[in-house]
Amino acid sequence: MKAKPEQPHVVIVGAGFGGLRAARALSGAPTRVTLIDQHNYHLFQPLLYQVSTAGMSADEIAYPVRAILRRQKNASFRLARVRAVDLAAKRLETSAGMISYDYLILAVGSVTNFFGMESLKQHAFSLKDLDEAKEIRNHLLKMFEKASHEKDPQRRKALLTFVVVGGGPTGVESAGALSELTRLALVKDYPDLDLQDVRILLLEGANRLLPAMPPDLSAFTLEALKRKKVEVRLGAIVESFNGRQVILKDGQALPAHTLIWAAGVQAHPLVASLGQPVGGQGRVRALPTLQLPDYPEVFVIGDAAYLEDPANLPLPMVAPVAMQQGDCAAKNILRHIEGEALKPFVYRDPGALATIGRNQAVAKIGGLKFRGFLAWMVWLGAHILRIIGFRNRLIVLINWAWDYFFYDRAVRLIEPNCLNEVESKISLSQEGKS
Amino acid sequence: MKAKPEQPHVVIVGAGFGGLRAARALSGAPTRVTLIDQHNYHLFQPLLYQVSTAGMSADEIAYPVRAILRRQKNASFRLARVRAVDLAAKRLETSAGMISYDYLILAVGSVTNFFGMESLKQHAFSLKDLDEAKEIRNHLLKMFEKASHEKDPQRRKALLTFVVVGGGPTGVESAGALSELTRLALVKDYPDLDLQDVRILLLEGANRLLPAMPPDLSAFTLEALKRKKVEVRLGAIVESFNGRQVILKDGQALPAHTLIWAAGVQAHPLVASLGQPVGGQGRVRALPTLQLPDYPEVFVIGDAAYLEDPANLPLPMVAPVAMQQGDCAAKNILRHIEGEALKPFVYRDPGALATIGRNQAVAKIGGLKFRGFLAWMVWLGAHILRIIGFRNRLIVLINWAWDYFFYDRAVRLIEPNCLNEVESKISLSQEGKS
Description:
2 copies of one chain form a homodimer.
Chain A: E1 9-13, H1 17-25, E2 32-37, E3 41-43, H2 48-52, E4 62-64, H3 65-69, E5 75-79, E6 82-86, E7 91-94, E8 97-100, E9 103-106, E10 110-112, H4 118-123, E11 125-126, H5 130-148, H6 153-159, E12 161-165, H7 169-189, E13 199-204, H8 215-227, E14 230-234, E15 238-241, E16 245-248, E17 253-255, E18 258-261, E19 265-267, H9 269-272, E20 284-285, E21 291-292, E22 295-300, E23 305-306, H10 319-338, E24 352-355, E25 361-365, E26 368-371, H11 372-387, H12 393-406, H13 421-433
């Protein structure tokens, strides 16, 4: 049904897993829906590490929001950056002007958390959006180019030492993929480089990898990474990184030009600007119904929201939570419109999956545990099923035919313009000199 | 055979069609070959307009040079920007240090020629490399986002007016693809926009399109573009463009926020720095053997070289000339090493092809002329055959399997890092205000 102006206006901020799910859950409902995002595409975050390690192209894990919402008559998209939320006046201050709402769903997600360490903020890479993933990819490849004509063996080793910090899924997946990129692909492009010079380290502060997994799967992951020649260090805490060497809390120094920070996230800064009580990682405390305590028309979901499970543990900052909360928030808004009682959010854990690279993974689904190739098949199947709507490589061929015969276009991402030729020149010439 | 240090060192500058062909022609020859380029990928330029009109992704028309040269034992690649050529000392000053040569092949290609018009240089888009193509794509999509919430009809029309300047293949192909992107794809994403507001103009200073084609094919092209709702203006000369309106020589003003300049190229500036006599478009005058008159060890090929055909007409700045000259230069270098007489370059014209968008094209091959769908099939076939080595969409599926089972990677392009988030923020917020 076409949206009517007199219908309540639901504004959703953020086109991630949660916001997108909420928008779709309101399809056909008697509401006007406006989805706002600073990018014109939805990003399939779980495969971002594949872009950073040159396994997939950016276009394959991003999909234009307008195309997703195309058939949803009551929804419209707005490309804009939300600067502030005026809870009292029920409106948003955005880069595209003021936008008023009757109901608001905040699905702004999270950003990298460097825990206030300036040196990391300046020199480390993080992996939260497409640009960062491309930056990492470009940097990795430049390190190999530099190393290929670096005479000094110590400097060459430092150029080829890649440190990943954080033993969660992102860190494990990045380290595994990095090992394969270097040892299986790049080695062919750089026949003169000695593989022994390439070092990949995975640093984790706790005493095991993948804390969300059962201990035996953590142990399996550790072994699998070792087989991939990844040096895993548990109980290793990073103190600083100046772009040339990593300093650990125990005083140890690792000469390395690359540090990928996958050790923490926190709620998007917009959340703090609300001035509402927050829980861990700066996530705003929401009622079980996902509403803000003092603003029943405002719902917070996903990484931005702090809720606890029955065991009083904070809900994890993962896609399944965001998606289920997106559904819940949409349903509760419709209940509120109908004057019905709102229902509390209940999380149904679909299990956890992490790949350790090609044909190795660990999975926990319900009571079941998988490891190795079987788990990897599960992982692959799960992701292909989830990404299929986002036109991954498996259906690019179909897209191509579709494109030509049904007049559609696949690639419609707005990336920031790449105008800093000068900078890249400079960096290139510095490479040359070093 | 593995290159030996005592073998003559052939340095090739530029990994375009000419440079790459020259490098491959020296495969197995008793020479050391170093290919230098400022990018680590070869760009399939003929399809660049597809990237700028969101028809293909950047990765699909670019391919890592190292992967192309992987099996060529006597060749190595150097990612570097050549700053100057010291002809007397036989060495290059590059961003990666000094590089000496015994033989030099300059295949540096061409850059956009704005004929000294500053306003165009500042505000117009050109289409010579991947970043420019992405810029255009991003800009086009932003114009539609802006128009989608622009209340003022005049401003909206200006936002949706796209001016392409230059009636050569690039201009014709861009205008045709632009028409299809807007009228067949974007219109679905912006249901509230009125198609009548979208204007695509193709301006050509001469009295017909595709001057390299027979007049009847030019006429056919004109009609085909009109059917695609492209307004073609012949004898229209651009005087200036301030980013808001295009001023023509006849004083006419066209309100438009987009001008794509495809009206001229000139030899890469490095050519002028040689201080050698130049012909049209700043191309250095080479001997029929492709050598520089005073420097027999230096060969110039492709867009950078000025040669005339038997009818004393300058050879066109197109890929086939560059590729054939790449072969010729390589063979002549081997002859020079053997002390044999060098052979003059003879151009074998393979014909001309230009697509006018989906299922419409014109082609001239030998005495034969094709038009319409048949010509388009010829165009498609020709390009698929030529690009197939560059892993286009048709074989992405195979790549994917390959990637997983044979440990290779498809995407290995170094783009300039996209760090100007700030700028994109600003432009975005300005959009919001306008």
